[in-house]
Write a structure and sequence with these properties.
heterodimer; A: 250 residues; alpha/beta; Rossmann fold; 7-stranded mixed sheet; 8 helices; B: 295 residues; 8-stranded parallel beta barrel; 9 strands; pyridoxal phosphate (chain B)
């Protein structure tokens, strides 16, 4: 058996559900999960998760600390990035339903997203969606996954290079209001993964496994190409002050 | 395919989880809401008068005008919260019908029921409630609150009560973790909280829902203090729009909550903010405590 290389996965920790992502990642083998707030921390990781939260807040804080160009160059190196919910908005080439004056995006993912597609919180929901083949490799016995949509965005259209991993069939009422019967809620394109829902709020670790494998493959490819491993920053993250919230089943 | 379910407890707690590490700001009109959004607030609390003015004006404070809440909803894309009086489940029904994203069952408004709180399980919209100690927090969660905040003393610009309530909750949880499981029954009785939630809290080492600081936070340092004490985020009420430079102060508090552990950043955020709101000493004669209006 070949040794499985350890990868460092960062979670952008400006605001939102970053601790939940760190907690999910730390349940997987051969993964070091760190919170990323600075350029130095970003330079030390092999892949990055942009968590759920308020995309306007994250954009503003990232901009204030000059992180946006750093995030764009991280993506330009084709280092894997996974955006959940607000993170999906960050990665999209186009986002509608933004605040007045718009917001800064990282871009790179050839799709158009509608922010807050389902409306106010009372329309937030959870459901079971069919697991795509790339998820079934981590547990073929579970052919669905639990998807939590919290004031969630949706992908309205995507380019030819973008692989659709999951779709949500709108309820009759939603279909009536939106003039369409389904929307895309998970996509993958080269080094980018994006989901409108929140795997970090569930016990299902398969989406995290999928992303970690994307990071590992990328790292192995880089090492073959002779690229030096990234700067090793050890004393980066502070000890956790708050403990994990429970995961609520229905 | 399993059915779609709205308003599950996981979905209610989920929105609070997305607000963590953020600042929720009180606003009284669309213009203030826009300033708050522009400054990086994760949500706004729409109300007719900020707590400092409710204190000044006296009288009965009620749910805000429905049109005013709707207008604020139209002005911003971030979540909009609104306050209902304690026990006033019809105000809550109205707020749910207005599509607000979170309801604050708040002691800042004059309580409508001085014994019972709203049965929050009856709603799809999630609720946040205030607390002064662990027992009060767990009673609210038992009633269906999906998010907790300290009560503090709203409208005072004085963080002392928020600190007291935060220490009471955190200290009780630390004490709980040292207890034998056999001792939990009497402890639950003593703090007047359901045994299941007491057990869960001991197991988790924290409240089982998101826990924000509120009631007296006025500066970036106040906000960072609450974060370093282990809170998940911060409500700022009168502290922003009762100061001389609301936009700058709002931005500074947002940055302070993200970088709460970095004193250099906090120093930068504490520079040239203009006058803060005038504070009130909670020990002054004639001071009305809002925190003690419910238990």
């Amino acid at each position: 058996m070949a040794e499985v290389p350890t990868v460092r996965v960062g979670v952008l920790a400006l605001q939102g559900s970053f601790k939940e992502h760190v907690s999910s990642l730390s349940k997987l083998d051969n993964v070091v999960a760190i919170e990323v707030r600075t350029k130095e921390e970003l330079d030390s990781v092999d892949g990055l998760i942009i968590p759920g939260g308020e995309s306007t807040t994250m954009a503003l804080v990232a901009q204030r600390w000059g992180l946006l160009p750093e995030l764009r160059s991280f993506s330009a190196k084709r280092a894997p990035i996974w955006g959940t919910c607000a993170g999906l908005i960050f990665l999209a080439d186009q986002a509608s339903g933004q605040k007045e004056g718009g917001q800064e995006l990282i871009g790179g993912l050839e799709c158009a997203v509608q922010r807050n597609f389902f409306g106010a919180q009372i329309n937030s929901f959870e459901t079971q969606l069919p697991a795509p083949p790339c998820l079934l490799q981590y547990g073929a016995d579970r052919d669905t996954f639990r998807a939590m949509f919290i004031r969630a965005p949706a992908v309205m259209s995507s380019g030819p290079q973008v692989e659709v991993l999951a779709e949500y069939k709108l309820t009759a009422e939603e279909a009536q209001a939106q003039g369409r019967s389904r929307v895309t809620v998970a996509v993958r394109s080269d080094h980018l993964l994006a989901t409108a829902f929140h795997p970090e709020l569930t016990e299902d670790l398969r989406w995290h496994q999928l992303f970690v494998d994307m990071v590992r493959q990328r790292k192995q490819a880089d090492q073959k190409a002779g690229e030096q491993s990234r700067v090793d920053v050890t004393a980066t993250s502070r000890p956790p002050l708050t403990k994990d919230l429970p995961i609520y089943t229905r | 395919m399993a059915e779609t379910q709205k308003g599950t407890f996981a979905v209610k707690v989920g929105l609070a989880q997305m607000l963590k590490g953020g600042v929720i700001m009180d606003v009284v009109n669309e213009e203030e809401a826009r300033i708050a959004e522009e400054a990086g607030a994760v949500a706004v609390m729409a109300l007719e008068r900020v707590p400092a003015d409710i204190r000044k004006d006296g009288g009965v404070a009620r749910m805000s005008d429905a049109a005013m809440i709707s207008n604020i909803k139209k002005a911003v894309t971030i979540p909009v919260m609104a306050k209902a009086r304690i026990g006033h489940f019809v105000e809550a029904q109205i707020l749910e019908a207005l599509d607000v994203d979170y309801i604050d069952e708040s002691e800042v408004l004059t309580p409508a029921d001085d014994v019972h709180h709203i049965n929050k399980h009856n709603f799809k919209v999630p609720f946040v409630c205030g607390c002064r100690d662990l027992g009060e927090a767990l009673r609210r969660i038992a009633e269906g609150a999906a998010m907790i905040r300290t009560k503090g003393e709203a409208g005072t610009g004085n963080v002392v009560e928020a600190v007291r309530h935060c220490r009471a909750v955190m200290g009780a949880i630390r004490q709980l973790q040292t207890m034998d499981d056999d001792e939990l029954y009497v402890y639950a009785k003593e703090i007047r909280a359901p045994i299941e939630l007491v057990r869960q809290t001991k197991h988790l080492g924290r409240l089982p829902v998101v826990n924000f600081a509120a009631g007296g936070v006025a500066t970036p340092a106040d906000a960072a203090l609450m974060m370093q004490m282990g809170m998940d985020g911060v409500f700022v009420g009168s502290g922003i729009f009762k100061s001389t430079n609301p936009s700058k102060r709002a931005r500074a508090i947002v940055q302070a909550v993200t970088h709460y552990n970095d004193a250099k950043v906090l120093a930068e955020m504490s520079a040239n903010l203009g006058e803060p709101m005038v504070g009130i000493d909670c020990r002054e004669k004639g001071f009305t405590s809002y925190a003690q209006r419910s238990e």
